Amino acid sequence: MKPAIAVVDVHGTYKVHTEFYASPAARKTIILVNGSLSTTAAFAQTVKYLQTQFNVVLYDQPYAGQSKPHNSNAHSISKEDEAFILLDLIEHFRVDYLQSFSWGGVAALLALAQRPARIEKAVITSFSPLLNEPMLDYLEKGLSYLHAADGSNLGHLVNNTIGKHLPSLFKRFNHRHIASLDAHEYRQMFSHVDQVVHMENHCQMECLAGIKIPLLFVNGEHDEYAAPEDVRVLTQHLSDCHFATIDNAGHFLDMEHKAAWLQSRDVLLGFLQSTPQRSTTFRPQVELQHAMAV
Fold this sequence. Notes:
The structure is a single chain. The chain has 294 residues and is α/β, with parallel strands linked by helices. The protein has one domain (4-132, 202-281): Alpha/Beta hydrolase fold, catalytic domain (Rossmann fold, 3-Layer(aba) Sandwich). It has helices at residues 44-50, 79-93, 104-112, 133-147, 151-160, 168-179, 183-196, 228-231, 258-272, and strands at residues 4-10, 14-21, 29-33, 55-59, 97-101, 121-125, 215-220, 241-246, 280-281. The protein has a nine-stranded mixed beta sheet, with helices on both faces. Strand 3, helix 1 (44-50) and strand 4 form a beta-alpha-beta unit. InterPro entries: AB_hydrolase_1 (IPR000073), AB_hydrolase_fold (IPR029058), Carboxylesterase_BioH (IPR050228). Pfam families: Abhydrolase_1 (PF00561).
């Protein structure tokens, strides 16, 4: 089913391209938050299973994808700006659930810290609040390519690091997309990466105490950049958090192979459609071999 397309005006400041996938039987709506350098197309695999149960909202940041023509993009926007946009879209589409991917988790957590009344649960995938050695190395190499607007080498870097577990076809799409970005997109990412590499972490821990809804953090078993063990530090800051590790998967989870897609589907739908216990490893209703890891 094709989505309903709309450009949403966010308080007269930004115009955001949105895609609304309606599910006839759905009683809830979920919004998906992109990672860096990505667009709504990155969630093509995720929409396939979420739309069986929920209405699904996708959107491009003002500087990216199909939002670009509607904005001046003269200045970079902050993660706080992205959180502001997300909060507006939550109200506009009357959203119940939220799911973020990779660095989209920063804006998602900042928005959730504002306690949007409509949001009941959230899933944060391929994210860690810590900048470990592999991630810092990746970011520092990326900075030089971003500064030079060298999209081709940046695309190779992404595919050889966080994207190394992707199928070859997806790597080709990834490289083509990253190599063809506009100059302002490289500037946007340079500004953000330059900021976070000088921080101990890229998630403002002090704001997390304001989040009271259940959160599920999903990471790939072989993701050394957002390692499953690193995300466990969040138990010190969140009152109701849960963890799942997808077996034999890297950073891109449901894009990497069919088994990871099936595990991701069952973990996410199981969490969103159940009442999990507090601060634990979440286990879906169906039996999965090594789908979760303590």
